[in-house]
Write a structure and sequence with these properties.
The protein is an alpha+beta fold. The protein is built from 14 helices and 5 strands.
């Protein structure tokens, strides 16, 4: 069995190595705020372990008081990093409360009334409390996603908490001898060795959390249009495939809008591509003000956009199209001087059983309606009604009525 001083030395080296790793991550990814807390936690833990080791060189319990308090503060910093990772507010007041109460309790049972079992209990509570407060974040789904690194960190935290509970209970009940981490013996060295392994695993879970976050961000960027920030064609096709599959199962319809900005080539030729890009961005902002939660706007290329309207009928899709045209027309009327007015033509189509899971059929139907809107004079919308006309040579009433409202 390794001696306790050797294990504590390895403990210090382990936390220093973790601190260097997190310092590199923090510098490489400055937007990952959690890395700052995890870097500080690792270095503070190394300091705390180093202070606790001084107990072996001096005949005083003060190094244990200082080292234990600093190690509890390190656990609080790690918990704050978890909260920042999930964009939760961190409370320095809570950290100060846990650390301060632990320091006061340890001080009392060192200076006022010497009691090893009570010191073990207070230290165990100080270490376990911040870990327990983050378990819900680590073990629950976030935004419908399972972060496997967080799941690992949560499971490891449960093991660490269990060790401190067993240690505190054994010390209070006087089972198994001395539970001081400084004394030599299997009862002392085994927990130190296990905690060192678990601390490395805990931080490894944090690294996996960060990697999973970065991977998801890269995946999300691959689905976004660089200019407007809305979905791109790949994202649109993925969403349409999901909606078609959902409607195929439930029979609930949804609608698709295909939008083309009128005269966009003339805007580029007359005012330049920078003005054209500004028009695309401005139209995106205007259209988003008329969408509902859950609706998806995507730029499919050039001046072409699509909007997916879940659980929406053809008439509801036409209503959204009318709202978008109204805001564009109001904005165009307010243009003065060098302002460039924006007009759009919109085609509206609804999913049906005939379309099934083939999203390209729905796109083709909306495109057909878009061509009709262009043919009728632009700056309007048209709907695609797949039902046959009531008499040869006549449009169906719903289609004709909606087009008049455009």
């Amino acid at each position: 069995m390794l001696s306790v001083p050797t294990l504590w030395t390895a403990f210090v080296v382990n936390f220093l190595a973790l601190g260097l790793i997190w310092a590199y991550v923090m510098r490489s990814y400055p937007t990952l705020e959690a890395a700052r807390f995890w870097t500080a936690s690792a270095f503070v833990a190394a300091l705390g372990a180093g202070l606790a080791m001084l107990r072996m060189a001096v005949d005083s319990l003060l190094p244990l008081l200082a080292g234990g308090t600093v190690l509890i503060f390190a656990a609080c910093l790690a918990a704050m990093g978890i909260k920042r990772f999930y964009d939760q507010p961190v409370s320095w007041r809570g950290t100060a409360l846990i650390t301060g109460l632990s320091f006061a309790g340890l001080s009392f049972f060192i200076v006022g009334y010497d009691s090893l079992p009570m010191r073990v209990l207070i230290y165990s509570l100080g270490q376990a409390t911040p870990l327990a407060l983050t378990l819900k974040l680590l073990l629950s789904r976030q935004d419908g996603r399972v972060n496997h690194g967080a799941r690992l960190a949560g499971i490891v935290a449960l093991f660490i908490i269990a060790i401190y509970v067993v240690r505190a209970g054994g010390s209070l009940l006087h089972i198994g001898g001395s539970f001081s981490f400084i004394d030599s013996g299997p009862v002392q060295s085994v927990p130190v060795l296990v905690l060192m392994f678990l601390s490395m695993s805990w931080n490894f879970g944090f690294l996996l959390m960060a990697l999973d976050r970065l991977r998801n961000e890269v995946a999300d960027l691959a689905l976004l249009d660089d200019l407007t920030g809305v979905g791109n064609r790949r994202h649109l096709l993925q969403r349409l495939a999901e909606e078609c599959a959902r409607s195929e199962r439930s029979g609930e319809p949804f609608s698709l809008l295909v939008i083309d900005l009128d005269g966009f080539k003339a805007i580029n030729d007359t005012h330049g591509h920078a003005a054209g890009d500004a028009c695309l961005q401005h139209f995106t902002l205007m259209a988003q003000t008329r969408l509902r939660p859950g609706d998806m706007l995507a730029r499919t290329g050039g001046d072409e956009f699509c909007i997916v309207l879940p659980a929406s009928t053809l008439r509801e899709g036409a209503m959204i199209a009318r709202r978008i045209l109204d805001v564009c027309r109001a904005d165009a009327e307010a243009c003065v001087g060098a302002d460039v007015p924006i007009a759009a033509s919109i085609g509206v189509a609804q999913w049906s059983r005939e379309i099934g899971v083939f999203s390209e059929r729905l796109i083709a139907a909306a495109d057909h309606a878009l061509y009709a809107a262009k043919k009728e004079g632009k700056n309007r919308y048209a709907v695609h009604d797949p039902s046959p006309p009531l008499a040869p040579g006549f449009e169906t009433m719903p289609d004709r009525a909606l087009r008049k409202q455009a």
